[in-house]
């Protein structure tokens, strides 16, 4: 699938097919208005992703575990190495976003499975997202839009929206409470949505996943972060991958009856059992800012047979704006 999915229009078609086949119909915020609002709120950086703009492509492999095979028929878990396209990024629309701030990091993946099947996902360095519904996310973006005169958001508007929608503060508060990541390879990345894993007997196990660095989480003190400056994560990643130390356990927290499965702002209870579905290892990093991940929009409802979406409204809401974002960035003047 590598060749096929790296063609932008076909990648879009793959996404669209997944939307039609697996997600219940639901009124959505118009995807063009959504992406317009990203641009109005965070600025328009032509040729770049409207979110996770400062990123880097890498490749690697995933080897599934027996536990993975017990839970799901997905060929990702066969135990044979599966090639994976990887993109690491800093959250936000600014391609110059500093690496040394307490902001979001992302791990986006495309598993290229046998027979042309693909599995895409975009994971974030927090256990919760910044909104529970697309409408709430859109409202939050509107509230953060800078006033043309002052070039700053209206603090009263921001507060009023957050007071009425406290869910939107969970993600920024979590990030502010965490130290600055020292390495893309030393950070936890959460899927935040629930997915169902379906095995050969047809048993369905819901869960939420986390990619946890095999070598542990690595962070910087405030002084170290200051000394590192705004640009160190790409070089650090290249060195760590060359040393063979960028690997993650793909862990699934298993949901129990009664757990919330439809919310990206409500994590599963902490005591839920965690199993390891396999290991992802990064093998190569792009020498520059371009690469195989460029033409991919990591659409989390592009799932393999054996993994199914939950009814989380944020999950189904991602496909269309991602497609709009992809078309915009690929048809704008090439980035520098
Ligand atoms: C309605 C909800 C959402 C909208 C409108 C939205 C919008 C976007 C857009 C426009 C992009 C850039 C896509 C591209 O150009 O290829 C993006 C990237 C991304 N989003 Fe979202 N997003 C939403 C929800 C979420 C949620 C819930 C998560 C949590 C996991 C998330 C995580 C990411 C990540 C990790 C990326 C960067 C992926 C990459 O490296 O390409 N997004 N988002």
Number of domains: 1
Quickly give the structural class: alpha+beta
Question: What portion of the residues fall into strands of 2 or more residues?
Answer: 15-25%
Percent range of helical residues: 25-40%
CATH class: Mainly Beta
CA-CA gap between termini: 28 Å
Number of DSSP strands?
12
Please explain how this structure is put together.
It is a single chain. Helix content is 30%, strand content 23%. The longest helix has 15 residues. Strands 1, 2, 3, 4, 6, 7, 8, 10, 11 and 12 form a ten-stranded antiparallel β-sheet that branches. With 336 residues, the protein is α+β, with helices and mostly antiparallel strands. It has one domain: Beta Barrel (Catalase HpII,  Chain A, domain 1). Protoporphyrin IX containing FE binds next to helix 3, strand 2, strand 3, strand 4 and helix 5.
Which structural traits does this protein have?
disordered N terminus; alpha+beta; 11 helices; two-stranded antiparallel ribbon; ten-stranded antiparallel sheet; binds protoporphyrin IX containing FE; Catalase HpII,  Chain A, domain 1
Helices, strands, pairings?
Layout: H1 2-5, H2 8-22, H3 31-42, E1 54-64, H4 66-71, E2 82-90, E3 105-112, E4 118-124, H5 134-144, H6 155-164, H7 170-177, E5 180-181, E6 189-190, E7 195-198, E8 204-213, E9 219-220, H8 222-228, H9 233-242, E10 247-254, E11 274-285, E12 307-309, H10 313-316, H11 319-331
Antiparallel strand pairs: 1-2, 1-11, 2-3, 3-4, 5-9, 6-8, 7-8, 7-12, 8-10, 10-11
Helix pairs in contact: 2-11, 3-5, 3-11, 5-6
Bound molecules: protoporphyrin IX containing FE.
Protoporphyrin IX containing FE binds at residues 34-35, 38, 49-52, 55, 87, 89, 106, 108, 122-124, 129, 134, 137, 192, 264, 297-298, 314, 317-318, 321-322, 325-326, 329.
């Amino acid at each position: 699938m590598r060749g096929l999915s790296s063609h932008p229009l076909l990648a879009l078609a793959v996404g669209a097919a997944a939307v039609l086949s697996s997600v219940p119909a639901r009124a959505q915020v118009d995807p063009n208005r959504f992406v317009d609002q990203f641009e109005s709120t965070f600025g328009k950086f032509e040729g770049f992703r409207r979110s996770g703009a400062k990123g880097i492509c890498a490749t690697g492999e995933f080897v599934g575990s027996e536990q993975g095979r017990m839970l799901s028929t997905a060929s990702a878990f066969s135990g044979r190495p599966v090639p994976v396209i990887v993109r690491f990024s800093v959250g936000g629309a600014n391609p110059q976003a500093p690496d040394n701030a307490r902001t979001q990091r992302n791990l986006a993946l495309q598993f290229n499975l046998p027979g042309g099947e693909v599995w895409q996902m975009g994971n974030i360095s927090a256990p919760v997202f910044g909104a529970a519904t697309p409408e709430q996310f859109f409202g939050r973006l509107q509230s953060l839009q800078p006033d043309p005169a002052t070039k700053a958001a209206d603090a009263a508007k921001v507060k009023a929206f957050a007071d009425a929608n406290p869910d939107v503060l969970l993600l920024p508060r979590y990030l502010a409470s965490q130290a600055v990541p020292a390495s893309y390879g030393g950070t936890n990345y959460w899927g935040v949505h629930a997915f169902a894993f379906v095995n050969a007997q047809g048993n369905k196990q819901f869960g939420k996943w986390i990619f946890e660095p095999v070598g542990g989480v690595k962070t910087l003190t405030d002084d170290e972060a200051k000394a590192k400056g705004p640009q160190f994560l790409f070089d650090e990643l290249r060195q760590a991958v060359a040393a063979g130390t960028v690997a993650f356990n793909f862990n699934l927290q298993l949901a129990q009856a009664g757990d919330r499965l439809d919310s990206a702002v409500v994590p599963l209870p902490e005591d839920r059992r965690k199993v390891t579905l396999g290991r992802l290892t990064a093998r190569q990093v792009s020498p520059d800012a371009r690469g195989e991940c460029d033409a991919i929009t990591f659409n989390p409802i592009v799932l393999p047979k054996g993994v199914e979406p939950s009814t989380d409204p944020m999950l189904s809401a991602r496909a269309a704006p991602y497609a709009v974002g992809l078309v915009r960035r690929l048809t704008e003047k090439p980035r520098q």
